[in-house]
Records
---
Amino acid sequence: MPSLFNPLQLGSLELPNRIFMAPLTRARSGRDGVPNELMARYYAQRAGAGLIITEATGITREGLGWPGAPGLWNDAQVDGWKIVTDAVHAAGGRIVAQLWHMGRLVHPDLGGGQPVSSSATTAPDFAHTYDGKKPYTEARAATPADIGRILDDYARAARNAIAAGFDGVQVHGANGYLVDQFLRDSANFRDDDYGGSIDNRIRFVREVLEAVGGEIGMDRVGIRFSPNIHVQGVEDSNPIQLYAELAKTLEELKVPWIELREPDKVTSSGSVPTAPVSPAMRRLYSGKIVINSDHDWTDARGRIAEGHADAVSIGRLFIANPDLVKRIALDAPLNPGDPASFYSGGAQGYTDYPALTEQEAA
Ligand SMILES: Cc1cc2nc3c(=O)[nH]c(=O)nc-3n(C[C@H](O)[C@H](O)[C@H](O)COP(=O)(O)O)c2cc1C
């Protein structure tokens, strides 16, 4: 029976434990999307995680609509990330970059022009801009030329990630962003090879994975999905069938690991989950499955021991507890987090959460 503290191999990654830091947008980069020393300190403090998955990181200006979020499309950003990966490695950790194209969730004010999506749709609610929240604008449907260019953008970002010293990448296929806008049928109304049937809706993510894996080797690639929740206007009418088919594609492509944001109760943002897809995926996919969302390690430990999953990723508790893995091992008390500084600010609420003292850890 594997425990949270057993090592785990994910493709080329050798991990000392199965408690991952989930991707967390913290918006501490500049407008140029260049990571900095403060971010290096934050990530290095969390190097005890079996694996750190970075905050979502834009593959292009077009794909990045979050003020203060980092990018991976130019040399300055690569140099900034090198500071981060060096600091994490020096602290004994491992880190992969989450590659992000937000699709229709990018406001033109961020400088990328009219947003692009699977179809000409407008996302619900409000976009983030440097001047506060504004209504989303209508996206245009990606042309075949756009799709080819975006695949190249993914490949370049993956190449840049390796140049920046990352141990691999995770494609962001969750939470209503571009990959999800192709995948799930509430946002994809195309009538060409990229829309309609499940096979067609899977085509874009398949091509993204082929582009990224072709560039850096599939043994360094993972992907995240949010299969059983409605997020940012994206959901599916038949998630189990869709993700079962997707599992076969991931198996065929030899993608070594997936992370599923798959809550089993109403989430903190009020989303009501449908039935989990992970049992169906588990039967068809031999790669490793990382579960996430509103888990504490009691239920995660059980699901891993029973073989339903291989690892757990933890988000909010990692914000407030840089040494979370040690605290779990010692059953030590946890710092409370301050949601007001989750998505913005400087060092406060970012690098000032205390680790256990030597006495407390003894
Ligand atoms: C502040 C914050 C930022 C987040 N940023 C990202 C992100 O960049 N990419 C992503 O895939 N999910 C993101 N999420 C979702 C988390 O990775 C995770 O799925 C969610 O917090 C549930 O896990 P938890 O209950 O362990 O916090 C974010 C969540 C929070 C609270």
Note: The mean pLDDT is 96.
---
Amino acid sequence: MPPARPHPNPLPQGEGEGSPHPDTRLPMRLLDDIVAARPQIQEIRRDIHAHPELRFAEHRTSELVAARLAGWGIEVHRGLGGTGIVGIVRGRLQAPGGGARSIGLRADMDALPMQEINRFAHRSTHPGCMHACGHDGHTAMLLGAAQHLAEHRDFAGTVVLIFQPAEEGGAGARRMIEDGLFERFACDAVFAIHNWPGLAVGELGVASGPAMASTSDFEIRVDGRGAHAAMPHLGVDPVFVAVQIAQGLQGLVTRVKRPIDSAVLSVTMIHAGEATNVIPDTATLSGTVRTFDDGVTDLIESGLRRIAGSTAQAHQAAAAVRFERHYPPTVNHAREAEFAASVGDAVLGPGMVIRGIDPTMGAEDFAFMLQERPGAYLFLGNGSDTGAHRAAGHGAGPCTLHNASYDFNDDLIPIGASYWVALAGRYLAAPPD
Ligand SMILES: [Zn+2]
Ligand SMILES: [Zn+2]
């Protein structure tokens, strides 16, 4: 699922532990003290990797984050969305005109319920649980930025460090918002970074508008009337009806929504029957819908209900529909996206920012934050998806998100942390207008 447009000339990748840092070869403007602090932040990253925790159970990770922030003199607020943490760093400069601004920087902390097959020293010590999406690295990059910001405070305004739980299916972002995130801590804008395998280290992908899709699931239960398979006229065959519905649903994508609007509707399960000579009473169809626009989801949901109901009725069956919306689309705000891209130009060097990168049909609960505040969700290259950066002993599989062989690329720590500091400083000094 990496986005299209890989860089035509991939940058040299590190060879794993002990390799020279890429910033020695790239025209990046990284902060010296952040580069110097990399070994300590990398140690934290690998410690989190070795102790992954599932959604809303990020107790150890949350404690670790809170302790580090407090140790650097940062005001810490706990308990938002359960295990979520907010750190507040106030600048020591006066804003011109007195109107101090604020910016939210967000990292996610949770891991996935899957078994890691890497064998390197920092592999997961929790069976069936793994940091396979790099949230360990997102947390580490933001900690690296936090340390620098707290030491220097050479800005006017406030940086709100948001460490959220449960991005992977738990809507932890929404839980933090429900717990008053933006009422308690003013954020004029909010930004998030996800590492992205397949983009070169140092590349930043910035979409204007949709960056990730919405997700919805549906289940349609068709109630017919069972009968002997040799005497179908004595019953109502729910399998026959379910198949008609499955066919009809594809018409929503090809005939009902506008062709220029993206959507996927996949029927992924059809369950019915137990014997070859028995027509069952019921059949169920389930699947998923992805779009980049809630209006398109509305159209598909109403169409799905209509097709299921009327198709069943046409064949003297009945249909019960459950349509469940999970994450809305992650839609970047144009002004903030361009601002984030311009900071990328300055920090990462010429040609490293991919504006207008293709959105992906994956989903992300940062969408909820972008419904509350302007901002942008950014893709930072994790290097080749063959994973040359991984430590010796990695699983033989590709270094892609949600893969059992994945590992976050530690070369991103000084890059992401320096980028965060620059984004915050520039935003607070002169926000986009
Ligand atoms: Zn993920
Ligand atoms: Zn993720």
Note: The chain has eleven helices and 16 strands.
